[in-house]
UniProtKB/TrEMBL annotation:
<dbReference type="InterPro" id="IPR014746">
    <property type="entry name" value="Gln_synth/guanido_kin_cat_dom"/>
</dbReference>
<dbReference type="InterPro" id="IPR006336">
    <property type="entry name" value="GCS2"/>
</dbReference>
<dbReference type="Pfam" id="PF04107">
    <property type="entry name" value="GCS2"/>
</dbReference>
<dbReference type="GO" id="GO:0004357">
    <property type="term" value="F:glutamate-cysteine ligase activity"/>
</dbReference>
<protein>
    <recommendedName>
        <fullName>Glutamate--cysteine ligase</fullName>
    </recommendedName>
</protein>
<dbReference type="GO" id="GO:0042398">
    <property type="term" value="P:modified amino acid biosynthetic process"/>
</dbReference>
Length: 501
């Protein structure tokens, strides 16, 4: 283990995204009374929650142990659970939170004749401008992405959904952990591949969900956006290297906001010529122009602008962090970045309030009727917690995980990632099989777990044993059905209704 005693049991959390469908029609379902129904269910247990609404439309519910909201649209629910604090039992605690969350969500959806489906993307959605406008989440950042950066934001509105674990790490281990989770992402992609359909057709990718980023971002007016959804060409040397890749030459900063609401700021100020963020941070005060109102104001670079931009890369893993109120001074930070890049972690460590790694490679999978019938060895009960357990085990076992990484060339891992998106376990690149990488990753993760948590890897072990991911099982079932392709997909959606454990 490379973590010291204070982080042997790191804080953990998870963000679960959930495609919804109508129980009768199987069409994608933008939720209506869902959040009020969920509030009633929770209040019956004595749990008070705060409804979040915009122009009279509910879009979220805030509770003590998490936030229940929507991802990019009302047809894709999102639950952010945790953090669960540093304890030996934190994985079991998170598992209990997940089970209760799903039970309540399924009950609340049933009141409006809707369901969560066991896919990482709704298989049959017709996306047009009218649908997009009616379903899109009320976040002002989307106006900026489409109206200023020129993204094709509409491309992601068939409820592409991920299972995103968060695992605390020391800042000094963050880049090593990031490199490992980026390099080993093909295993997460393949084991949880669950989106073989798009728009009522066979997509040609077993994890079609991950086609979202090139579809949305490759058309951006900012050339650097294309780079920031792709795994980098080489591992990062240190934190400074990561920040220079993300905010250095060839990239364009986003807006500057006066508020703490990063994805729904009341206003956004644009910096002339949209320079790389690091160039902006080195500059003096400049005149920013409001994106919404066109008024102008003087903007002074601040270290918090770095923190505000930390989400603006869309690869398979992010470093997430917060800074304490007492610094550091921006000039000192930039001096270390430029002149002592290998000392940046040491310089920042006293100012860090939290640091965790956000995994983004695993697709959403949920227990359905067929999976629960198999549950002799925790296959369905381990399903949703298993990405968190895998990431937790890899990061607690960081020395062995790093040694596993050294078995592979980085370029081969990049090729395996593309193969995992297209072919899941059946992928192969340069003589290396995706399935073999998956076996190595699960074995290494298991070494980082306590004995009492080993069962949480039963689902990925079962996938490896059978050679069948969620996508494979869906395609196999489709081939045994009668009727038109769209009719068969509709029947499959009904069969794949998620059920509580």
């Amino acid at each position: 283990m490379t973590m010291d005693e204070s982080t042997v049991f790191p804080c953990i959390g998870v963000e679960l995204e959930m495609p919804t469908a109508h129980i009768r029609t199987t069409e994608t379902h933008p939720v209506g009374t869902f959040f009020r129904n969920l509030q009633q269910i929770r209040e019956l247990r004595g749990q008070k929650g705060e409804l979040l609404a915009y122009h009279g439309r509910d879009y979220g519910l805030k509770f003590e142990q998490g936030l229940h909201s929507i991802d990019n649209g009302f047809n894709n629910l999102e639950s952010s659970l945790g953090p669960v604090r540093q304890e030996k039992d934190c994985l079991n605690q998170l598992h209990s939170l997940i089970n209760l969350e799903l039970k309540d969500i399924f009950a609340a959806l049933e009141r409006e004749k809707a369901m969560v489906i066991n896919f990482s993307e709704h298989p049959d959605v017709k996306i047009n401008q009218t649908f997009y406008s009616s379903v899109r989440a009320p976040r002002s950042i989307y106006e900026y992405q489409t109206g200023y950066r020129g993204w094709n934001h509409m491309a992601g509105f068939d409820a592409k959904a991920q299972n995103s674990p968060s695992t605390e790490t020391e800042l000094g281990n963050a880049v090593t952990g990031l490199n490992c989770l980026l390099g080993l992402a093909p295993a997460f992609v393949a084991l949880y591949a669950n989106s073989p359909f798009e728009a009522g057709k066979i997509a040609g990718f077993k994890e079609n969900r991950l086609t979202i980023w090139p579809k949305q971002m490759d058309c951006s007016k900012m050339a650097g956006d294309k780079k920031l959804h792709q795994t980098p060409a080489k591992p990062f040397n240190n934190l400074a290297d990561y920040l220079k890749w993300m905010f250095g030459p060839g990239t364009s900063m986003w807006f500057v906001s006066e508020t703490d609401s990063l994805k729904n700021p009341a206003d956004m100020y644009l910096i002339p010529s949209d320079p790389p963020l690091l160039d902006f941070l080195k500059s003096g005060p400049c005149q920013g122009k409001s994106f919404f109102h066109k008024d102008k104001k003087i903007i002074s670079p601040d270290i918090r602008h770095l923190v505000d931009h930390q989400f603006t890369q869309y690869t398979d893993c992010r470093i997430r962090y917060g800074l304490k109120d007492n610094g550091p001074e921006l000039s000192e930070f930039m001096d270390v970045m430029d002149n002592h890049p290998d000392k940046l972690e040491e310089f920042l460590a006293p100012f860090i309030s939290f640091c965790y790694l956000e995994g983004r490679a695993a697709g959403a999978n949920y227990p359905d009727r067929d999976l629960t019938k198999l549950d002799k060895s925790n296959i369905s009960s381990s399903l949703v917690i298993s990405p968190s357990a895998m990431q937790y085990g890899l990061l607690r076992n960081l020395k062995q995980t790093s040694m596993l990484m050294e078995k592979y060339r980085w370029t081969d891992l990049l090729g395996l990632r593309n193969e995992a998106v297209k072919n899941a376990l059946d992928g192969e690149y340069n003589g290396i099989k995706v399935k073999d990488l998956c076996m190595d990753v699960v074995e290494t993760a298991a070494q980082g777990l306590e004995l009492e948590h080993q069962w949480m890897l039963d689902y990925p072990l079962w996938v490896l044993q059978t050679g069948k991911t969620g996508a494979d099982r869906a395609l196999d079932r489709l081939s045994r059905m009668n009727g038109s392709l769209r009719d068969r997909i509709g029947k499959l959606i009904l069969e794949r209704r998620a059920v509580p454990i």
